[in-house]
# Entry
Amino acid sequence: MKVLLNLIKESFISALHEIVNNRLRAFLSLLGITIGIFCIVSVFTAIGSLEYNVRTSLDKIGNRVLYIEKFPWSQDAKNSWFKYLRRPNPNIDDFNALKASVPGAEGISMMFTINKLVKHEGNAMKANVFGITYDYYLIKDMSFEEGRYFTATEIERGANAAIIGSEVADILFPGSISAIGKEINVFGASVQVIGILEKEGEDVLGITGDDAVILNYNFVKKIIDLNSNFIGTRIALKAKADVSDEDIRDQVTIAMRQARRLSPLQEDDFAINEMSMFSSILASIFGIINFAGGFIGAFSILVGGFGVANIMFVSVKERTAIIGIKKALGARNFFILLEFLIEAIVLCLIGGILGLVLVFLLVTIGEYVILNSFEMNFKFIISGGQIAFGLLFSAFIGIVFGFIPAYIASKMRPVDAIRSK
# Structure
């Protein structure tokens, strides 16, 4: 074992020596590997980052959160639109039934969303107006730049209070004016700002809370008709950590059917939607994209591999006499084979490392440009697995494309090799 390690060490030193002595030739040959590794790792990084950001965006809507609505989030909704349109909107009676009959829920919130004009003095903007009940904070994480969340008493008595996003605060209260304690006009009524959410920025799906105005549901129902089809109410329900997805769906289904007095023969007149419905779709889409990206990237590195094979044949040709002398002095075939094979591997590994460095530079520049030019939060993910893949694949290319030149060198007859000079 010690002899083998010494052999590998000497072969590694010899390989570095040859690469240094032929710097230009080595650089040109490893350039193909550099470009190949850069292409294939960049493709996997871009696809993996896109998938991560899409899933993160969907998680904003709610992780392990069920939405009870009249329309399902499926293709069938387009085909049976009139059927679902005739369903009743989830109402406060449904909400109360779920609160009383779903023990697996961590939080349940009655809510609606509508795009509406909000004003303060001479300033106005279109905002996403939410109406919520108290448990909403258990369903969606909220970080405050200033102010606070609603109290249970405020929700119960329908207080005219509002929580606004950072963009709403900047537009309606420009400059250094604090919005806390001030009033804004929504639905023709005045509400007092009690909280300002931290700036989120827009994600890859365009989801952001910066343009949100969150109101007390019990306050809004006093001034507008929430049963209108133009304002689609829904119930958001987050399951407890120890309750399975199947159990929580069963509990919700039973509670809703009882609340709406549906007979066993009647079909559900409500839909239970959740983010996990998109998981299988996303997995299949990104699986296909990954395969296609890897296939294209593999061709890039294949070109680099042929470059390495070509340069190794040249190297063997130039050192034929030296090979003959080494074999005449007792060097075994395995030593000659290992020497040239390690040279090819080292060459490819250096190219792979340079390719990974370029990927890191591209990712750093890409994040900066996307954040500052497009004001979008897009996080690039380079995993340890991708780095390991880049290095191992580089070594593999060195073995595959360096083996034949190394094998030819190892099989040379000493006399013929020495005479070749």
User: Anything to note?
Assistant: The longest helix spans residues 333-373. The chain has two domains: 2-59+281-419, 88-269. Residues 232 and 389 are 48 Å apart (CA to CA). Residues 88-269 form one domain.
